[in-house]
Amino acid sequence: MSGGGTETPVGCEAAPGGGSKKRDSLGTAGSAHLIIKDLGEIHSRLLDHRPVIQGETRYFVKEFEEKRGLREMRVLENLKNMIHETNEHTLPKCRDTMRDNLSQVLQRCELELSCKPSSSASRA
């Protein structure tokens, strides 16, 4: 200030020549801060399982999707084989059986129709 006299230190400044007490308290606060930080890290490692759970969840979902994909591929492969077998074997067999049976049914119908007018003529 103006005039002669001694100035007192402001804030955290240590007075020149003495004031080791102020410096010790700052050192303790710094080490306490580091201890609290270390305790926070230990706490998070011991008690915070979110990263582990998230990793396990991601692994489970990945495995589930892979197995689901494989299962769907097997289902599609089975369907493909069934369709191929139906087209190559079952349908031709059914078509041939249907032709044979329909021709027999048609012959029976023609026979009945040819016999029916003569039987209805005898009734009249």
TrEMBL record:
It comes from the Eukaryota. Residues 1-27 are annotated as: Disordered. One of its GO terms (cellular component) is transport vesicle. InterPro entries: Bloc1s5. Belongs to the BLOC1S5 family. This is Biogenesis of lysosome-related organelles complex 1 subunit 5. It comes from Colobus angolensis palliatus (Peters' Angolan colobus).
